[in-house]
Task: structure prediction
Amino acid sequence: MIRDWFKKSKIEDAHPSEEALLKHVDGELSSKEGAYVRSHLETCWSCRRSLEKIEETISTFVEFRQQIQIPLTQEPPKDWSDFDRKLNNLATLTPAVAGSWWSRSGERFGRFFQNFSHLSMSGRSETAIGAVAALLIAVLIWQLIVVKPISASELLNKSVQFQADQISELAEAVIYQKLRVRRNNLSEINWEVWRDAAHSRFRQSVTSGVNAAFDQELLNILQLNGFDPQQPLSPTTFMNWRKYLVQKNDLIEKARADDGGELIVLHTTNTLANAPGQISEATLKLRSNDFHPVEQVLQIKSADGIETYEFTELDYRVLSLTAFAPDFFSEPAQPQIASIAQPAIPKPEEANPNVLVANSNVAEKPVAAPFTPASADLEIEVFSLLNKAKADLGEQITVSREADGRLSVQGLVDTAKRKNEILDALTPVRNNPAVRIGIKTVGEAVAEQTSTPKPAGTAEIVESQSTVTAAESELLSYFKSEDAAHRFGGQMIGRSNRAMSRAYALKRLVGQFKSDELAKLSPDSRAKLLALIRSHASAIREECEGLQNELRPVFGSVNAGASETPDVEDVTSLPRAVDALVTLASTNDTVIRSAFTLSASGPGFTAIKTSQFWQSLKTAESLAVKLQTIR
Amino acid sequence: MVPRLTNRWFSQESEAGILSDGELLTSMTEANQLEQQITQLFETLRQPVYQYLMAVFGNAEEAEDLTQDAFLQLYKTVKGGQVIRNIRFWIFRVAHNLAVNHRKHNQFIAPLDANSWEIIENLLPDTKLNPEQNVLLREKYERLYRGLKRLSMQERQALFLRAEGFRYREIGEIMSVATPTVGEFLRRGIKKLSEQNGD
Result:
């Protein structure tokens, strides 16, 4: 649009478009375009007026933001209180960086050898050479003892984490990979795959060297060994294959890529491979700077010996779904490798017959049993069980679906007693392989921190500039005693808190499911979900009613009715209604807190007396009633 | 005549934040200090990130959690050895995407409740203006407030990101749209605000 205008402006003295003026204000025009606009503005009153209007609007927006929006959103609800704990937890869970020691030690060695060759060529004395040799030994000892080598699992985990982080940087990421697959250096195909991570969709295409027999054989090999054909060259796939091996040897070494870049090469040998089609050795080459896999070689047992499949990455990108046509994933590309539909969940007994061999001499964690990914019904069951232990009300318990389809219930609780209560409540699903439960006490979490302890947190002394609340005068004139006034304030904040925590529990509950999942629930799960919703909604209604009944005598009756609220016709309309209820509860909570918490400015205006607050409170109540009666 | 603004809309505090990031970035490679540095960055940048999420996504508890999640993600990424050149941009992009992913239904809830102008009005600070000027100022803000409510989600995101000092290209990357589209969102946004703003 700007370009069109600029072309036109060269022919006739056209006025810059609004967008060009805005870009001019923002310094976003090219130097030529900017020079034209500046020169035009010098002579054109009309455009100067337009420019002034844009600047006025920006100025008002900036003022509004600083005067209203920022002060209103200054303090988050939990006042950032749990960040340090989360960071500490993460610090204990995240292994130390592997790349840095490698590159640093590499640099040290490089410098060392430079010095060594310099000394040799310059013909220094034997003493100097002896000193250098001693130093070499010292460095080697340092390398072997002080520097902790990276294990295969750590390497693969790191690679998986890097890819996950990269993918999470985009809202809806599509992973594109172009591979060259070569068999025995004789035949090859170029294979492109697109994977829509957010919606589990997949598209693939063979762009050259189409060979039906080769394709089918490749697919058979991948599936037999539990390789995900949707991600044939990925750390996740390699890791999944490796973890099912009962007896294996790993070797990690450094190498140089053709372009000179540093690679880390992992060789894993399946020492019990004996059946045709099994991988006897797999090699994964990762870039050392970002652990991205660029090449993989699979050696397959065959009747005639060993066949080699070499996967080389020709291109890899993480793209935004918005860059694709809407039907991109629904229209399969031609030609393609046949019958790749869903990612195969590795089945140990089929993928690796060796799993059944009992005398394993490799210490490995037990292999997780195959499982069906957690369903929405199972999720509701878990929420329902947590609700029985009252563990769904803002306690630090999170329920989330993991990438592998398991349902993860993680939590940090204060006491062992509370932990046992929650675990007891979860008994019906504790042995379900699709549910992973990790409830810890604070003491256990602290004990698990094996890294150097952080300095103890500094105690913060909070001094309030005032000891009175905004609603102090109304409270004192009604209660005649400061104690009673403060007690009342505390009760109101308590009610509002309870309403908020119920509203957020509702939001967490409903937010777990997509609309189509809600619509497809089994009758039993649906009944459980509705019972949970009714229980939360009923508690919110009670708190809203209580607030109105108790505030009215103190602040006087305000005439206000409820506003219109979203209809709650069926479960699919829940998310909208629950979001609206959370907003209302949050607005009410802001007003109540500003009235009954100590205020730096002392007694003064409190929005409790406005009709808007009463309207908001009644609207929340009426929405809660609607949710309470959902069928 | 309104004084001419610089080509950056952000305030002095934000600018100070950017400088501070740069300084921190130079020393972010030592793993043993990483937690402290992330905590420092968190303290410097959490407020603008939180306010952005509040302005466009509107839920205080979610905004707080997602802000924290973005910084935890930063920790993991830096600890994993990745170099981040523009931390402020990176954090906003990750926080934005976390919020978009989090809100499966992508529905917009006005952070400032539809009927709450009068509540907001009463929270306005006292000014030294005379009563008439005061009324005019309040009317100006109210018109802008009503204009803001007419913005689409994307126009709103683009405006608030621009107000945080991001270039059009950066806004495009954060929102996963092309740079010219950002110009169009901002033009439409400013137009909607200015239509309500005295015309």
Observations:
- Residues 100 and 106 of chain B are 7 Å apart (CA to CA).
- Chain B is about 70% helix and 0% strand.
- Chain B touches chain A through 88 residues (CB under 8 Å).
